[in-house]
TrEMBL record:
The keyword Chaperone does not apply. It is found in: Cell membrane. It comes from Pararhodobacter zhoushanensis. The chain crosses the membrane at residues 12-36, 74-95, 115-136, 148-177, 197-219, 226-246, 258-280. Keywords: Cell membrane, Membrane, Transmembrane, Transmembrane helix, Transport. It holds the Pfam family BPD_transp_1. PANTHER family: INNER MEMBRANE ABC TRANSPORTER PERMEASE PROTEIN YDCU-RELATED, INNER MEMBRANE ABC TRANSPORTER PERMEASE PROTEIN YDCU-RELATED-RELATED. This is ABC transporter permease subunit.
Length: 289
């Protein structure tokens, strides 16, 4: 008598709730990424080639990558320092919940505020004819341009990126700070440790992987910011996102396949930064559980 086949278990209906997420990821993340990777190794006629990858080793493209790395690094570093200080004041600093809740709400909004609206906001505020720029010049005789400040520059882009980098740091590091156990501080105090010694020998070593991982995430976040950079500086600043936009847009000297290679290089850099964040975050969470 043949053995009866086990009945197939129907797919749980709960999976239908996450089906739109997987569809979104597939259509707008995986498929475009695969298209870019394939295009980076294709000729305009559709053949296979490494010339697009080798063409990245030119002074203009290498300089664009280097400027993008510097902007991403400094915005990530400053964002980590300032964001950590604000998050520490909100959690272990004893600020009332009436301050913490609005700050967390604002951070959730500001961390996703980028692109043309963010660029316009900064141009209208501290741009060459911005409100604050004109006010300082007319009321106090302070000319930011003569002092060397230019919003449409590397420094200006770093300052603009900080608007969403600092809130993102606050959102990510706050749960880690909340995870510091009160018993650790009490034990350190019983053993005669000061507050500074507690942070230097207990809290910071535990939080360091999380802080370093978040900095890697902020780096990737700034490195991949295309719309804000283009809207703020246009073609005046030689960074990877703007160079990528010029190649794919199809200008007279544009090369879409070289643009795909540029995007592939950006994917590799941001992918490594995100992988570092995941590894360090997992290591930090082992202590904070």
């Amino acid at each position: 008598m043949p053995a009866s086949r086990p009945a197939r278990r129907p797919l749980p209906l709960t999976w239908l709730g996450v089906a739109p997420f997987f569809l979104f990821v597939g259509l707008f993340l995986l498929l475009p990424t695969a298209y870019i990777v394939v295009g980076a190794f294709r000729t305009p006629q559709g053949g296979f080639t490494f010339d697009n990858i080798l063409a990245l080793n030119t002074p203009t493209i290498l300089s664009a990558y280097w400027v993008s790395i510097k902007i991403s690094f400094w915005s990530a570093l400053i964002g980590c320092v300032v964001g950590f200080a604000i998050a520490a004041a909100l959690t272990v600093g004893g600020l009332p919940r009436s301050v913490r809740n609005p700050m967390m709400t604002f951070s959730g909004v500001a961390s996703n505020f980028a692109g043309v609206p963010l660029a316009f906001a900064f141009i209208a505020t501290i741009g060459p004819a911005g409100i604050i720029t004109l006010y300082l010049r007319s009321e106090f005789g302070i000319n930011l341009r003569l002092m060397g400040f230019n919003l449409l520059s590397t420094l200006g882009l770093v300052i603009t990126y900080l608007f969403f980098q600092i809130p993102l740091m606050i959102l990510i590091i706050t749960p880690a700070l909340d995870g510091l156990k009160r018993e650790w501080r009490e034990a350190a105090a019983i053993l005669g440790a000061t507050g500074l010694q507690y942070w230097r020998m207990v809290a910071f070593p535990i939080l360091f992987p999380s802080i370093l991982g978040t900095m890697a995430l902020l780096f990737a976040n700034a490195f991949g910011a295309v719309a804000t950079a283009i809207a703020l500086t246009g073609p005046s600043l030689n960074i990877a996102p703007i160079l990528l936009y010029a190649q794919i847009r199809g200008d007279v000297l544009g090369s879409p396949n070289l643009g795909y290679a540029l995007a592939f290089g950006m994917i590799v850099i941001t992918g490594l930064a995100n992988a570092l964040y995941i590894v360090l975050r997992a290591r930090s969470e082992r202590w904070l559980k």
